[in-house]
Amino acid sequence: MRLSNRQQFTRSCIGLAIAVLLAVLSSCADSSSTGSAPAGASKQETGGAKKYRVAVIPKGTTHDFWLSVRAGAEQAARELGNVEVLWDGPVSESDKDVQINLVDGFINDQVDGICLAPIDRDGMIPVVRRAKGAGIPTLIFDSGLSDPSATISYVATDNHHGGVMAGEYMAKLLNEKGNVILLRYQEGSESTEQREEGFLETLAKYPDIKIISDEQRVTTDTVEAVRVSSSLLLTHGDNVDGIFTVCESLNKGMLKALQDKQLAGKVKFISFDSDPQLVEAMENGELHGIVLQDPVKMGYESVKNMVAHLEGEQVESVISTGEALATPENMSEDEMHALLFPEKFRE
Which of 94, 116, 165, 299 shows a CA-CA span of 20 to 30 A to 53? Predict the structure, then answer.
């Protein structure tokens, strides 16, 4: 039977309405499925693969060490292909409140995971617990928390062992006899406190080595480090045989003070962490040893293990990235050279 034009038009309208209704129902079903995901699941579909958003929050963003950590984190993201690194941190490594606000911001943004280097071992615990309560896992790197129960893993150097290495080498340089200064970092940083403890515990085994100063602390301000170091040398300069500093700002401040006082090279000087200025000082005989971390590996393992956790895999509770001691004798070896000049992130 031949349909009239009016009947054909009516059937076309009914067919179009059914098609639109089916499309709307399908869209609602997809939205319902997405809406059932747990809090913090901000995964995006890219070519059928899940795309994770992982915040990486260092203690600071200016020192060379953190640029190398970022290089490792970005390397992991490139290799994995299913993760976006959201890098942000305080300018100053003493600004705990800024770091707390950053973590809270990423919680509000519902990122999939947070990799955090805590400025303060106690002060960052509440915000890490808030992240866990929001369904967002936190991996700690570089420096630990006093209570790690709300975290999934800890990726770091064995800082205590690094301090032991510095102590043993200092004893060797001094032929197990002399007066030593330890310049400490600000209170609350778990990583540097472990270095300090390892160093002091080791030198305590040598009865003819005396610690003549271990009470002075310095923040990340290099100007402050120069001032405090100069004051120590003014007080103990004629009586000091060895010095150990535990992080980048202290290393640079003490080196400058030693140079200004014409004591560089005369006093046995060991630092923890390296940068080109310190490598040059060791080449010139002004620095006698550098305890080295692997910041690139630290950033790489942090992102890699966070994604593994998000994919449902079991990750180790503690992941060591290793430590080494560079000296004038071994600094040209391939392994040491790679640690002395680690890759750095470039915009």
Answer: 94
